[in-house]
Amino acid sequence: MSQLLFLALFLVLFVMTEYRGHDQISVAVNSFFRSDPLVLAGYLLAAKSWSRLLLPAVVLVAATLLLGRFFCAWICPLGTLLDLLRIRKTAAAPPWLLSPNLKQWLLLTLLFASLFNLNLVGLLDPLAILLRGLTFLLYPLLGLAAREGWVELYGLIGEQRDSFAPLYGLLRDNLLPFRDAIYPLAFFSTFLLLGIFFLERLGTRTWCRCLCPLGTLLGWLGKVSLFRRLPVDVCGDCGRCRDLCPMRPEQGRLEAGECIVCMNCERDCRDRRVTFKLAAPLKGAGPLLPERRVFLGGMAAGLLLAVPARFRSPEMTATLLRPPGVRAEDEFLKKCVRCGECIKVCLKNALYPAAWQSGVEGFYTPCLIPRLGYCEYNCTLCGQVCPTGAIPRLPVEAKRREVIGKAVFDKNHCLPFAKRIDCIVCEEHCPIPDKAIRSREVTVVGSDGVERIVKEPHILDETCNGCGICENVCPLEGRAGVQVLAVINRTPLSEPVFGSEPADSGYAVK
What is the pTM of this model? Predict the structure, then answer.
């Protein structure tokens, strides 16, 4: 019951992380990530600061210290899906995969990389893996199938279609995605999720037992828990609990850090020998910390990963635009959990997961691609759903002044400059009240030798916030005649002074 309820809650919050006609999302749709101890650990180590948004994760840490690794069996939505699938075991797991050193080394690598200012815990966090798989491929496919299926149904039912319209309206407004989207890394994200399901062929909860960094961290905390299984050892004359336990105790002993407190063994024990109760940690129950070679190996791997991963190509990062409110790239990368919540909720489909634009450290972080979408002038949804504050939650008035980038005209491509013909599409769509793009009449001589008056656009640097709508609506095919580039200084705009006509100037860009 607990597993199903939390899985249903996860899916409900997932569907609610969407634009449904309201500018505010009142429900804490990011609750699972705010309660994630792995996200908390990565944030504290990388950002070297604290955020009150992660207070629920502290509560879960305290509960784990008392009750053990209960999250994996009672709450984790990915663990619930693994239990529901019940994939039949068809192969034996290789010994190296079953080694406890592997998962500890993997977790230590992520933690030490965070300590060295490279926060990549979100790449292997089970909640993030599940959410990205749903967001980037499965949920858009559901919306596409529903819409195309409804079109076909309308063609079949003919005159009765009006009676079914309210049903489609109910689905559209409450379940289906707000807009169709095709995301980069969609298939990679889904293959990673399906790979976790495929591991079940090697045994139940193989991902949880052998690889999951969140489960390993909770296991470390659970070693000192007061609520534990007694006896620790599997009974020699029965061994039934060995088959019932999803964590498959090795060598006849289930350590406190490996037990997920599912209580299957107590429920199905024929002789009522197994019980769960408050008890002091047993002596000789195993070391709290990993072996020294594993610890040092994780430290070395984290350092070796952190140093080259921070390389960024200046040419690629010149067009790397971040969501509104992000001012310092380094601070943003330290705090971002790569969950994809902001990408999913983006109203105008402007945010996409970065692949290599910001190097390895920027993998899966949100970046704005103006040619595909733009930042809506009055929208603050991305800041509302960010679980760590990497994208700050801002009032609408403050968000409007946040600088994402600066628009720059390509005079070899823009129609008024290159072809000497009028085009004011970018000016018409600029959302700034007194326009950040304005046109001025100039007299030019065409290729036929005839003088004509052309409206040339120019940009007011102190007014442009880089929302990207000008690049998005540019009528040219392929590359737009105006491009938004990242700026060195992302400080907010001051209150704009309208009515001035500054000279057309260049911009400080990356």
Answer: 0.90
- Structure confidence at residue 112 (pLDDT): 96
User: What CATH number does the domain located at 401-485 have?
Assistant: 3.30.70.20
Cα–Cα distances (Å) from 79 to 75, 93, 139, 370, in that order, read 8, 19, 20, 38
159 vs 21 pLDDT, higher one:
21
**What value does the mean pLDDT take over residues 73-82?**
96
Contact 34/54 with Cβ under 8 angstroms? Answer: yes
Q: Radius of gyration over alpha carbons of the chain, in Å?
A: 27
CA distance 383 to 373: 17
Average pLDDT value for the chain: 88
Cα gap 479→78, rounded to integer Å = 41
Q: In the chain, what are the domain boundaries?
A: 2-134+186-278, 401-485
- Alpha helix stretches (DSSP H) within 231-372: 240-244, 264-268, 292-309, 314-317, 329-335, 341-345
Residue 254 CA to residue 230 CA, distance in Å, equals 10
Contact partners, residue 142, CB within 8 Å, separation at least 6: 176, 177
The pLDDT, as a whole number, for residue 503 is 38
